[in-house]
Amino acid sequence: MPRVSIIVPVYKTEKYIRRCLDSVVGQTLDDIEIILIDDGSPDSCGEICEEYKRKDGRIQVIHQENQGVSAARNAGLQIAEGEYIGFIDSDDFIETDMYEYLLALADRYDADVAGCEFFECYAGREIHVNKEIRCEVLDRIQGIRHVLDSRASMNVVNKIFRKTLFDGVMFREGKILEDAYIIVDLMANANRSVFTDAQKYYYYHRENSITTRPFDERFYDAIEVHDYNYGIAVSVSGTLAESAQLRRCWARFYVLDKMMSSDGSYDRDKEQECIDFLKKNRHLILNNDVLTRARKLAFIGLLFSRHIYRILLNLNIRKTGRNNG
Fold first, then answer.
1. Is the pTM of this model over 0.90?
2. Phi–psi pair at 193, nearest 5 degrees
3. How far is CA 21 from its chain centroid?
4. Which of 144, 143, 137, 83 is nearest to 108 (CA)?
5. H helix and E strand count, the chain
6. Which ranges constitute the DSSP H helices of the chain?
7. What is the pLDDT of residues 235-272, one digit of tens each?
């Protein structure tokens, strides 16, 4: 049994995939299996996967019709034999010691989940490097709160998970925010987790135009998933209710931001539902240390009018290039 199975969904990333796979096959941890899922990629990705398979006996390749990243990850989980499971997006890459580092933490603390931080990579920007490296070992309730409060990301790609955590748990197919749909379930199954500030994963943010575009109905998935996660969290412990409720607020902000940045082709009743929900939770929104100052200022603007909120939102996007917390 390999110590870690690394699952890599592949779709239309021929420009980046060699960099990704080189970082995986070059891991200092040798006891790994690498599962590449060619998710019906129309470019040369499938051929590149087969090329790497011929060079490295630890690699398996699955070719399937395009079904999306969740279906690809689920296909990998079905054949994975590792004690722990890791995931990588094929347009990113990792430090050569990432899996050795995470596995050492998991072994040292007998943890079901071990996670590191990202190098956040934006075009034309300097990459931030953490100067202080801390490590936190958490029980089940602490681990869930750590994720809900954004002290650890909801992404799965910068973590390893004991394979048994996936018993009865799969990625939701046909959804966006697929990591958010599974991470709280996994953390609820974990007796212990460990998180470090060490950065081991290079996460590339593609350029997004801030010009208007149609609203995508799938953005409502954010509300669905965080309402679902609220139920999971409070079933573990009522002490998680506030953190889970704040995530529900974040989901409404996410949808509202997408509406405000669109061409106006969205349901105004659903927009008002988001606004009403946020206003009902104003005390929680304004009195926490999770949401950013910019987010709170925009919310204060929303208390007066949606027009002020839109202005403050667009100012923040132009300043940072993205929406903040």
1. yes
2. -135, 160
3. 20
4. 137
5. 12, 9
6. 17-25, 45-55, 69-79, 98-109, 140-148, 180-189, 221-236, 241-260, 268-280, 282-286, 293-304, 306-320
7. 999 999 999 999 999 999 999 999 988 888 899 999 99
